[in-house]
Amino acid sequence: MGQSVGAVVAGCAVVPAAIALLRWLEGAEERRKIQVQATQLPACLELFAAALDAGLPLRATVRHLAALVPEPSAELLRGVLGHLDLGRSDSQAWLELREHPVWGQVARDLARCASSGAGVAETLAVHAQEARATARARREMAAHTVGVRSVLPLSCCFLPAFILVGVVPIIAGTIGSFALLG
Q: Which residue stretches of the chain are H helix?
C-alpha cells in the first residue's frame, strides 16, 4: 500500500514538471524562431521594396519572396500566399499577421496600403530602416552586457587558479618554515 501511495505522489510531482519542461522547450524554440525572423526582416523588406519598385505586383512579389527568403520568414509569407490563393483580398491576407511580434506592424501597414492604394514600397523601405536600427540597438545592448555576463565564468576560472598558484605556495612555505622551527 505504501509503495502505491509513493508512486502516486511521485507521479503527481513528475507529470506537472514534465509538462512545464515541455512548455519551456516549446517557448525557447518559439523565441529562437522570432529572433531569427527579426534578424531576417530588414533584408526581406528591402528585397520586397526593390521588387515592387521594379514593377512587380504585390501578389507576385509575395510569391517570389516566399521562394527566395530563408525560413522561418518564408513560412510566414507562404501563409499569406495561402490566404491570397483562397481568394482573400490583399488586405485580409496581411491582417492575418497583424499580431505577429516581428511582422505585425509591417502586416498592418501593408493591409492599410493594399486597401487605400498608398505606396507600398516606400512603407517597406521605412520599415526596413527601422528594423535595421532596432537590430543595431539590440546588438549594441548585447555588446554592453558581455562584460557583466563574463564576470562569473572568469571568476570561476581565475579565482581557483590564483589560489592554487598564489596562495597555496605561500601557505605551504609558511607551514614548512614552522615545521623547521619546531
A: 2-53, 58-68, 73-85, 90-95, 104-116, 120-149, 151-162, 168-181
